[in-house]
Structure formats: structure tokens, C-alpha cells
Amino acid sequence: xxxxxxxxxxxxxxxxxxxxxxxxxxxxxxxxxxxxxxxxxxxxxxxxxxxxxxxxxxxxxxxxxxxxxxxxxxxx
Length: 76
Description:
mainly alpha
């Protein structure tokens, strides 16, 4: 949830659950089917791309993730 909120502050919208799970707190059935342990899948985020997603959008996401995860690592 912290990563979702941090990305939101940069203007990037992601989700902590599947599009069809709206508000559920249980493990994602998709991630469970992939064999992920519940503690891992609880930390997953969903990133959706579509026909209007540009290379610039992807680059912005990557830069934001690097910045946010770098700040988190330095704070620890």
C-alpha cells in the first residue's frame, strides 16, 4: 500500500489488487494460481498498460520506482 500511495503522489496510478477484486483483502486468485506464497502476493502491485500507454509513460514508471525504492532503501 505504501508503494501504491507513493506512485499515486507522482501521478502514476497502480493497484494493490486485481481489477476484479475491488476491495478484497484475500490473496489474489491469479497470483495463488501462479504459485506465489500469500506473503509475497500481498506485496504485489498491478500495473496496467493499454493502447494509449507510451514509452514515456513506461520510462516515468521505471524512474519513479527507482526513486521510491531507493529512498526506502536509504531510510532503512
